[in-house]
């Protein structure tokens, strides 16, 4: 099976350490874990996460294991969901200082080259938009 990578990026208001903390805190609007129908997270190296977002009729599960964490700079974890068709992929999230806040870049590697795999681009852009809105971005 051919695999693809998806990369999305956005400037988020706030310092890298602040944006990093919000991204990993399920209590904070803008975190991808916020509002999950079901959620478990241990944000430490070798810690696991499970979150399920409801799609109206059921909860769609997502699983992973944190492999690298450098507060305010980098989060890396594995990722499995129905959309990866059983493949374990890797997500790297970087937090770089920017004149307008933090340049946040998400690179998702090892996705299946199909509509489900390519759909992760829209999903990650959705979460970056939600985080930017929660942090007070104007657009």
Question: Major β-sheet, in short?
Answer: 7 strands, antiparallel
Spatial order of the strands in the main sheet?
A: 1-7-6-5-4-3-2
What is the overall pLDDT average? 94
SS element count, helices: 2
Account of the protein in words:
This protein has one domain: Alpha-D-Glucose-1,6-Bisphosphate, Chain A, domain 4 (2-Layer Sandwich), CATH 3.30.530. It is 21% helix and 45% strand. The chain has a seven-stranded antiparallel β-sheet. The N and C termini lie far apart (38 Å). The model has no long low-confidence stretch (mean pLDDT 94).
Care to give the gist of this entry?
This protein has helices at residues 16-24, 115-134, and strands at residues 3-12, 38-41, 48-54, 59-70, 74-81, 89-98, 101-112. The model has no long low-confidence stretch (mean pLDDT 94). Helix content is 21%, strand content 45%.
Describe this protein with a few key phrases:
single chain, 139 residues, alpha+beta, Alpha-D-Glucose-1,6-Bisphosphate, Chain A, domain 4, 7-stranded antiparallel beta sheet, 21% helix, globular
């Amino acid at each position: 099976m051919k695999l693809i990578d998806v990369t999305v990026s956005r400037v988020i208001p706030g310092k890298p350490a602040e944006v990093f903390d919000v991204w990993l805190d399920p209590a904070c609007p803008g975190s991808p874990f916020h509002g999950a129908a079901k959620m478990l997270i241990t944000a430490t190296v070798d810690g696991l996460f499970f979150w399920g977002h409801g799609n109206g009729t059921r909860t769609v599960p997502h699983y992973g294991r944190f492999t690298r964490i450098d507060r305010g700079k980098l989060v890396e974890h594995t990722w499995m969901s129905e959309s990866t068709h059983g493949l374990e992929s890797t997500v790297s999230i970087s937090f770089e200082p920017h004149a307008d806040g933090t340049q946040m870049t998400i690179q998702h590697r090892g996705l299946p080259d199909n509509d489900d795999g390519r759909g992760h681009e829209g999903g990650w852009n959705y979460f970056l938009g939600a985080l930017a809105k929660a942090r007070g971005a104007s657009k």
